[in-house]
Amino acid sequence: MIVFNVNDMTCGHCVGAVTKAVKAVEPGATVSVNLANKRVEIEATSADTQTLKLAIEEAGYTPVEVAGASQPAAARGGSCCGTCH
């Protein structure tokens, strides 16, 4: 899971633009956007963090990677959040 805070998302149009930008470079991605928290979560199949960040930037937004959230589950101990085993 790759997670960004995108503080300059302010409306539904922004959500659509960010989602469209991600899907343009990673058509198979699952994109979840929480506008209230300004958070974008991406389950990518092939694109890396930098590629996705650049796509969002090119759409006119400022994504900031959430530290530690972008590790694959296996790197966090094999579970979704790293706390269970």
Automatic annotation (TrEMBL):
Keyword hit for Metal-binding: yes
What phylogenetic lineage does the species belong to? Bacteria, Pseudomonadati, Pseudomonadota, Betaproteobacteria, Burkholderiales
Write down the InterPro entries for this protein, in alphabetical order.
Answer: Heavy-metal-associated_CS, HMA_dom, HMA_dom_sf
Judging by the UniProt lineage, the source's domain of life is: Bacteria
Where is each HMA domain found?
1-64
What is one Pfam family matched by this protein?
Answer: HMA
- What are the entry keywords? Metal-binding
Q: Does the keyword Membrane apply?
A: no
Entries under SUPFAM superfamilies matching the protein: HMA, heavy metal-associated domain
Q: What is this protein called?
A: Heavy-metal-associated domain-containing protein
Q: Which organism is it from?
A: Piscinibacter gummiphilus
